[in-house]
Amino acid sequence: MSITALRRAARESVAGLPRAFWWLWVSTLINRLGAFVATFMALYLTLDRGYSASYAGLVASLHGLGGVVSSIGAGVMTDRLGRRPTMLIAQVSTAVSVAVLGFMQHPVAIAAVAFVVGAASNASRPAVQAMMADIVRPEDRVRAFSLNYWAINLGFAVSAAGAGFLAEHSYLAGFLGEAVLTLTCAVLVFLRIPESRPVRTPAPGGKSAEPVTGMGTVLRDGRFMGVVGLSFLVSLIFQQGYVGLPVAMGADGFGAADFGLALAVNGVLIVALQIPVTRYIEHRDPRGLLIVSSLLAGYGFGLTAFAGSVAAYALTVCVWTLAEIVNAPTQTGLVVRLSPVHGRGRYQGVYTMSWSVAALIAPLMSGWTIDRFGAEWLWGACAVLGTVAGLGYWLLMRSLPEGTEADAVKGRETAPVPAPAPREAVGA
User: Whole-angstrom Cα distance, residue 321 to residue 267?
Assistant: First the structure.
């Protein structure tokens, strides 16, 4: 492909998205530049503090439990209080709790604060995803979610290797660095990103044209809850890149820098391939994409059983990274497709909960399995889970309505009321 064609493809990939989306994109990038706790917590506890893999798994599970607890509440806040206030509360709380975690010494205190960090850091996800659905046109949403995921991994690619070397000298610096960058995100949201929550259109007689979406409505949505369950299985696999993989590499004699380099491949590949792959999958049916990505995730981690060097570990990361590239924007777009406009926060909260529950269970699963049977059994279980998820998507999606937006299919999509202009930064 010529340079001219590459430039044209790049322009087409970013064209047509609103200004508010790009400020949200920047905040995501800054936030991921400081992603330290979720990536290096297991190594911090096992290598630096000398705790067992089981204790590290317990702490990571409490971190995940915090996310489970906050997911539903954050979804309700997103619909009731608004997207922007929910993000501000979540980011400020995350910055404070991460800084506190770096100074904790007692194992009970570490576990308790890790729970708070998990709850705070997860609370912004429903708001971010709902805001993107609000401000981006339906036909551009898969591309927008893909670009946001690209920002997540661009930040991760830059930070993973550097944070790995930083961890060799000072884990505390990593905790404080994440706190500062998360607080920077909150400032950016406050100064630049307007509220986007759609206003209900009143029907004749003064009532809302759309029925109120409560949590009962979400939980009774059979197809959506099926997607949530399958998302949980896939998430359980992907979580092993952050909980099972570092512990297994540590047991094989590799250090934090080695793990950081191997995992950095994940971010680098997503930065390199996310946009061109998205151009390929953007208007394709999500059914086949979700089946293939589930199988790639399961068997990509399954190949880790045969890794014995940093290069071999990096090669397995390449396989399941391709699954991530396809799965993340496709599944997030599907959730929006199945969600009513004024219930997006709740739907995104329940969907986010599937990842949070996986973050709760995956560390216990990996720690228990590695301690008692060895890492090879863990990677075999990942292959089985990927197969089950792929079969589940095939069964569930056979009755999925055709089209690119279920909002259009169900008559749910309405134009949101324009949000007020963003508050300009001081001195801009």
Answer: 8
